[in-house]
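Hey, I was hoping to borrow your eyes for a little while. For a while now I've been wondering how a particular protein folds. The fold is given in discrete form, as structure tokens running alongside the sequence. Could you read through the record and tell me how the tokens relate to the sequence? Take your time with it, there's no hurry, and the full record follows here:
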Amino acid sequence: MYKHLFFDLDHTLWDFDRNSAECIAELYDAFGLADAGVASADEFSRHFISINKKLWGDYDKNLIEHSYIRQHRFPMVFQALGIDASVIGADLNAEYLKLLPCKSHLLDSALELLNYVQGRYTLHIITNGFAEIQATKMDSAGISHYFTNVITSETASAKKPDPLVFEYAMQISGTTAAESLMIGDNYEADILGAKSVHLDTVFYNPLGTIVDDKPTYDIRHWKELMAIL
């Protein structure tokens, strides 16, 4: 039934949390954050992941600009920790953005899934991330060659869950909704966005989050998708 598979990247294939935690641990050591009063790299990482997720959610809802995330996420982390960020004396966001895309960890069985579907379907990425950074992430993880098109918020001039993103993705991929399947972890951006243009959807949902508007498929692990396809 399906000929084209559209994947989200971060938190779906590319293990954002693990890769980010590695970056935070490196920054923690490199910039002496223990001396600034941060109890541990794990504590710093927990606050960062929580705040970063909230900011990206606001960005997806058009509540803030991308520049706001870059300017405010680390100061917000230090504020949450009760630490004066001015004592750090370094642009942690710039250093983070240098390190992060070079990390290579994929989510469990993601590579096995890509090897399984390669050749059976035409594969694409739809991401709200930015083209240069996402390209580096894919190269670092060794998965760029699996995908025919990488659709970003820049190339589509819109971002998920805007229907325009999915319409643009199908247009440049030469496919239709009936022949396409959207796969992602973000219920609002990936699933509801894709459903708005009548795409079938796979909700990659390892935590088993209960949702009202059911996706076509709700899976906990990539091996479940291999069984479906």
DSSP finds ten helices and six strands in the chain.
